[in-house]
Amino acid sequence: MVVTMDWARLLAVCALFTAAAGGTLWWAGLASPAPVVKAALRAVAQLAAVSAVLAVVLASLPLTAAFLVLMAAVATGTSAARTRTGRRGAWVGVAILVGTVPALAALVLTGLLPPAGLALVPVGGILIGGAMTATTLSVRRTLDTLRDRHGEYEAALALGFTEPVAVRELVRRPAAEALLPALDQTRTVGLVTLPGAFVGMLLGGAPVWQAGALQLVVLLGLLAVQAAAIATVVELVARGLVRRTSPEGEVRLT
């Protein structure tokens, strides 16, 4: 199956979706449309640049590895910015990589994923992106919990709990909520959503069963990667390695 692209219609639909998102935020009084427009323009520029270099990157294993490192670095910076952890935000990179690297290695070593850029970049991107999302959500939830339940934290210390133990007791449940999107996606796959790996293989002409099998592996890998990221975040926060460096007010879409 070959998918043809009408570029004029593509641009028109993209502009329509961007206007709808920004207009809805403005109409509902949720936020300014500016962040949506900036995100859309940034996506256009980044995808154009990536498309230009991927042909070269995918043909070289060392360049593929370097590109994956770049993806992890950008994910770390994005998560650190969203969680307002400043220089300590470098530690969120540990949470992003702690599950992603072993998962990617397992896929390659078992032969389910060929050691080629065409396979490593998209699957690696899915895993890194999932770990980034879980890390950002769990850091925000844990730090918000520490702020909102500071009295309980001090009470636990007064009862003789060490700081790491007191923090863990408070933040475990809120942090675990970051896994809900991945759980829901896995529970409803095929019934509500057909994720990217499945659709991409179908568009590429792969058999339906093969596309489904790969998607199952990716979804379960995502669960493992995100669970590892959340558990790592709890430990990093409990040990005081991840903290906010600026006051957290309302959620800003920047």
Walk me through what this model shows.
- This protein is globular.
- The relative contact order is 0.12.
- The model is unreliable at 249-254 (pLDDT under 50).
- The chain is mainly alpha-helical and 254 residues long.
- The chain has helices spanning 7-27, 34-57, 61-83, 92-109, 117-148, 150-158, 163-176, 180-188, 196-203, 208-238.
- Helix 3 runs parallel beside helix 5 (117-148), helix 6 (150-158) packs antiparallel against helix 7 and helix 7 runs antiparallel to helix 10 (208-238).
- The chain has 10 helices and no strands.
List the helices and strands and how they pair.
Layout: H1 7-27, H2 34-57, H3 61-83, H4 92-109, H5 117-148, H6 150-158, H7 163-176, H8 180-188, H9 196-203, H10 208-238
Helix pairs in contact: 1-2, 3-4, 3-5, 4-5, 4-10, 5-7, 5-10, 6-7, 7-10, 8-10, 9-10
Question: Could you list some keywords that capture this structure?
Answer:
single chain; about 250 residues; mainly alpha; disordered C terminus
Give a short synopsis of this structure.
The chain has 10 helices and no strands. The protein has 254 residues and is mainly alpha-helical.
Uncertain segments: 249-254
Percent strand equals under 5%
Helix content: over 70%
Arithmetic mean of pLDDT? 85
Sheet with the most strands, sense and barrel status: none
- What structural class should be given to the helix and strand makeup? mainly alpha
SSE pattern, N- to C-terminal: HHHHHHHHHH
Approximate shape:
globular
Cα end-to-end separation: 39 Å
